[in-house]
């Protein structure tokens, strides 16, 4: 089994407890990160969406945040597509999110037509994509000119301050123990802190976005740099 297939299988295994663990392990603050990202992007785009594409959609959670944000801003979303390679996640998404289309697929090979998406989002999933450059090319391909790419992710950065050290202790010691207890999967929540440490810095992610042809609109750190929001635009 190659690395990407192993990651996909791991997410299939933890799919029944995934949403509950997200809320518990982040103390619910991930909701604020998602809500803020959706509202900021929709204000920047500032017009109705014909097609929203959520990549690595998991159980479809972010699509619900997009809907609520659009409702608050008086905007409409005509079509929502959630893409994920883990069929276990998609089974839950189809029951949880009515009216959206969920398709099995990987970030580096999206089952989406060229220049058909107003916004492409990926929340806490880009770190799990082995072919990152391929994914960037796909995001660019499916976006309309002027469309937005929204990425939420835990980025690697140098740990200097007290909060950094406390966060590191939580991620490496407490989080795996809680995750193992609830999900019964010893790999998944050991993988999380390890994958963050091995991932890109915000500066490296910005370089990759620009190399793929995107214009950077915003890079914003949330809650002591635990989560970072990237918003990039495909040029007109």
Task: Give descriptors for this structure.
alpha/beta, 9 helices, Rossmann fold, 236 residues, seven-stranded mixed β-sheet, globular
Overview of the structural elements:
This protein has 236 residues and is α/β, with parallel strands linked by helices. It has one domain: Rossmann fold. The protein is 48% helix and 19% strand. The N and C termini lie far apart (41 Å). The mean pLDDT is 89.
Outline:
The protein has 236 residues and is an alpha/beta fold. The protein contains nine helices and seven strands; from the N terminus they run H-H-H-E-H-E-H-E-E-H-E-H-H-H-E-E.
Walk me through the topology:
Layout: H1 3-14, H2 18-25, H3 29-45, E1 52-55, H4 61-73, E2 80-84, H5 87-96, E3 101-104, E4 117-123, H6 132-142, E5 143-153, H7 162-183, H8 188-197, H9 202-211, E6 215-222, E7 227-233
Parallel strand pairs: 1-2, 1-4, 2-3, 4-5
Antiparallel strand pairs: 5-7, 6-7
Helix pairs in contact: 3-4, 7-8
Tally of helical segments: 9
The CATH homologous superfamily is termed Vaccinia Virus protein VP39
SS-based class: alpha/beta
Q: Unreliable stretches, pLDDT < 50, 5 or more residues?
A: none
- Bulk shape: globular
CATH topology: Rossmann fold
Helix content: 40-55%
Q: What series of H and E elements makes up the topology?
A: HHHEHEHEEHEHHHEE
- Beta-strand share of residues: 15-25%
